[in-house]
Design goal:
The complex is a heterodimer. By secondary structure, chain A is an alpha+beta fold. Chain A is about 45% helix and about 20% strand. An eight-stranded antiparallel β-sheet of chain A has the order 5-4-7-8-1-2-3-6. In chain A, strand 2 and strand 3 form a beta hairpin. In chain A, helix 1 crosses helix 2, helix 1 packs parallel to helix 3 and helix 4 packs across helix 5. By secondary structure, chain B is an all-alpha fold. Chain B has eight helices and no strands. The longest helix of chain B is centred in the middle third of the chain and has 26 residues. The chains are: A alpha+beta, B mainly alpha.
């Protein structure tokens, strides 16, 4: 390891502790942005030590009323934002705002969900049990994709050398048995999404979403067969460069009334990989 | 489920609007956050405000959490520490601006010291810190609780900046080596 890199590891310690001087912090951030796995690992290790440091603070208990106060404050903050979002969507200024970008709150939530899905998948890779589960799910999906090979045009999507894949993972709101995988061919902009174990509760429908530039757009309701299998073929999924993730929500029968926002819980989400 | 898996699930549920996820995070983390905030701001009312602001930040900024750089626990504590240092500095500058000196509220000691897992962890960490070389412990505590930068610490300890950097690294590494299996990390 080079001496220069040793120095970055040392900066990681100061960064985790939150004590770097501005110039050092900028230097390290630039280095981390270049994708140094070793430094990210070091940062995680050092940050574990800072948790210990935090735990060394002298014992103290807040007033028993604090719990209610904090929960109430977050609830109020969330309600305020929802109101602001509705106002923007319905207001005259809303149309112009939507052309520039989607309402902040929705964009934020979806981007965050996609980010977290990546985090969950990264984490799952380190866990044997979860990895086995994923492997099992992937086999079932591969079998389903095989059926698509009857149609050459769609088979081309799956076998395209430039194909990009999003493996969707169930959120805590979703049934853990749900499996889904989206494959996108950036060259033709066609996408194939396969689903397993998608039996919607009666009176509800699962709906597929593409998150483009962090804003959701409906790709339609998922119509599964009696075995819970479904395939959604998307003729033109839009500019592949702007697609962040795919997601599934549980909606009232017939799907969300608005094509740009799910109303039900997000049950699966998966960021688009390379 | 490990602590980290539970926390990740909580963040996802929070995104989906599940209020119980927030309650779960509050119950898990407030016993760590409040003492940390109090240690930094040195006043109970402000420490409670810091805890409140921390949870608002957690729900607003869930998307900024990066699992590659550390656990959810580390992230939440970093948010709280930053808020607490901001509050402390804001008060310090208000006091400097004021013509009369304010009387600081004394730090209230908990009527019943929290027991359970946090109490035990606290004891183990304090013992571990006690075994670190004096200068390393001093650097870690000054940086973390007082928010001094490395060059400020170097000045205060009258030590070269490079030495402060290597004390930081060694201190954090040693702490982790003494307590390698703490679930909270």
């Amino acid at each position: 390891m080079s001496g220069a890199h040793e120095e970055f590891i040392e900066l990681c310690a100061g960064h985790a502790l939150g004590s770097l001087d501005e110039a050092d912090r900028k230097r390290l951030e630039e280095h981390l942005a270049s994708g140094c796995a070793e430094c990210e690992g070091a940062l995680a290790e050092f940050s574990a030590s800072t948790v210990l440091l935090a735990a060394s603070a002298p014992p103290a208990s807040p007033s028993p009323r604090l719990r209610e106060r904090v929960l109430g404050a977050v609830h109020a903050d969330r309600a305020r934002e929802a109101t602001a979002r509705r106002r923007e969507e319905h207001g005259v200024a809303g149309a112009a705002a939507r052309r520039r970008g989607f309402p902040w709150g929705a964009v934020y939530g979806w981007a965050a969900a996609a980010c977290l899905a990546v985090a969950v998948l990264v984490f799952a890779r380190a866990t044997w049990r979860l990895r086995d589960e994923l492997a099992g799910g992937q086999q079932a999906l591969a079998a389903l994709e095989q059926r698509l090979l009857e149609s050459e045009r769609w088979a081309a999507v799956l076998s395209a050398p430039s194909a990009r894949v999003a493996s969707l993972a169930p959120t805590p709101e979703g049934n853990a048995d749900l499996r889904a995988r989206a494959t996108l061919d950036p060259a033709t902009r066609r996408a194939v999404v396969v689903f397993e174990n998608f039996q919607a509760p009666s009176g509800r429908d699962y709906e597929l979403w593409v998150i483009r530039g962090a804003a959701p757009a409906s790709l339609g309701v998922i119509e599964a067969d009696e075995n819970g299998r479904a395939v959604v073929r998307v003729e033109d999924v839009g500019d592949p460069a702007t697609i962040e993730a795919f997601a599934v929500s549980l909606e009232p029968s017939g799907g969300s009334p608005t094509p740009t926002a799910p109303t039900g819980p997000v049950v699966m989400v998966g960021a688009l990989g390379g | 489920m490990t602590q980290q898996e539970r926390d990740l699930a909580c963040l996802l549920r929070l995104q989906a609007g599940d209020q119980r996820a927030l309650e779960e995070l509050y119950d898990r983390y407030s016993p760590l956050l409040y003492p940390l905030a109090l240690r930094i701001v040195q006043a109970s009312t402000e420490a409670e405000d810091v805890v409140q602001e921390t949870f608002i930040q957690i729900w607003r900024r869930t998307g900024t959490y990066d699992a590659l750089r550390g656990t959810v626990a580390a992230w939440i504590l970093t948010v709280a520490r930053t808020r607490a240092l901001d509050a402390y500095r804001a008060r310090a500058s208000r006091q400097r601006a004021a013509t009369r000196a304010h009387t600081e509220r004394p730090v209230e000691v908990a009527s019943s010291p929290p027991a359970g897992e946090h109490g035990l962890l606290r004891e183990r960490v304090r013992t571990a810190l006690g075994t670190l070389p004096e200068r390393e412990r001093e650097v870690l505590e000054t940086a973390y609780f007082e928010g001094l930068s490395q060059s400020e610490i170097a000045k205060r300890l009258n030590a070269p900046l490079g030495t402060v950097k290597s004390w930081t690294r060694q201190g954090l590494r040693r702490l982790r080596e003494i307590l390698p299996d703490e679930e909270w990390t």
